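Quiz preparation item.
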């Protein structure tokens, strides 16, 4: 008989490896149903998060066919919240509650909620990435041992994204090894390899930082001004206009300069002068974004400025220039996190209060 009705296991599974498999199988011996929350579920591909949520679901379903088919293993997505642990905790709590209510009541509202349901958070506390095990005191805890504690998904990705990719069959399930063998022949793999090589060379050419950058979050009439990146890293992804600080300018002036250089923003009279653009900055919203993992290039600390342009039926004209392949206005309601470079989705959410 199982010790708990439900277990919760949280991971990124980039990719699923034998350590993950061991934890899941051990947890299934102690819970009736295990809810696996797949993190970083709505981020753009990069060498740290190369596989989409759907691809990671496919990996897990290949390995745990019977458990998924019988409903003992349930998979759900969870987004990143780099600058707010409480927001991430709230999403995890909501996801678990909604999943259990759905399973218990066929999607209806339980008369007694989750009062009579036993829930345990399960995991393998191998390093600082497992800090989340302390964030949910309302749940019981199943701390699992694993014989696969000397490697991580990072080690697997490092070997995999090479000109001669290595699929470490000894530390990933056979089904995942076969999946990776297919993936390494794809155009997507080639693009990720190119970016991984760029990022590996970046510190040698530019250093590890810390570096200072400035970003311009520009809104007008329910729209936001974004650029499409024209170069690695993040080529083709959407980004906030911005860039590195020049030696003899203030961070505020750098935000204005980068905005003008990358978008050529203009009205009926022509390109808008720097002083006028600066007058649109809402100084109450200026914020520093300094998460240590916000960029894979180096330690980059950015200062974001909110530009509130006057509402009007005809938006200011923009054209992609400098590092930007394109510049366009996007409706705020149409934005999707998986389209964005680095932490720019989080930046927009916090600056614009989406």
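Solution:
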């Amino acid at each position: 008989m199982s010790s708990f009705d439900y277990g919760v296991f949280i991971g990124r599974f980039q990719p699923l490896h034998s350590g993950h498999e061991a934890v899941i199988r051990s947890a299934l011996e102690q819970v009736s149903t295990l809810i696996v929350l797949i993190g970083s579920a709505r981020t753009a591909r990069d060498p740290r998060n190369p596989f989409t949520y759907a691809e990671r679901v496919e990996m897990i379903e290949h390995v745990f066919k019977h458990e998924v088919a019988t409903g003992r293993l349930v998979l759900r997505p969870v987004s990143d919240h780099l600058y707010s642990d409480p927001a991430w905790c709230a999403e995890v709590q909501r996801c678990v509650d909604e999943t259990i209510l759905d399973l218990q009541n066929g999607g209806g509202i339980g008369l007694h909620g989750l009062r009579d349901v036993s829930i345990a958070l399960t995991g393998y506390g191998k390093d600082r990435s497992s800090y989340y095990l302390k964030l949910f005191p309302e749940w019981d805890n199943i701390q699992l041992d694993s014989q696969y504690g000397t490697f991580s998904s990072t080690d697997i990705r490092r070997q995999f994204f090479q000109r001669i990719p290595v699929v470490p069959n000894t530390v990933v399930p056979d089904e995942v090894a076969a999946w990776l063998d297919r993936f390494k022949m794809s155009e997507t793999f080639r693009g990720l390899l190119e970016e991984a090589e760029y990022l590996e060379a970046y510190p040698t050419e530019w250093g590890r930082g810390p570096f200072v950058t400035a970003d311009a979050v520009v809104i007008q009439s329910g729209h936001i001004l974004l650029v499409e990146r024209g170069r690695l890293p993040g080529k083709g992804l959407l980004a906030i206009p911005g860039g590195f600080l020049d030696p003899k300018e203030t961070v505020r002036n750098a935000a204005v300069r980068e905005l003008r250089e990358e978008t050529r923003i203009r009205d009926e009279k022509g390109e808008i002068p720097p002083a006028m653009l600066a007058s649109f900055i809402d100084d109450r919203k200026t914020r520093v974004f300094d998460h240590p993992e916000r960029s894979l290039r180096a330690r980059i600390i950015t200062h974001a400025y909110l530009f509130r342009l006057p509402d009007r039926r005809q938006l200011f004209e923009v054209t992609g220039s400098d590092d930007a392949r394109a510049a366009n206005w996007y409706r705020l309601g149409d934005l999707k996190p998986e389209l964005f470079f680095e932490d720019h989705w989080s930046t927009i959410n916090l600056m614009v209060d989406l």
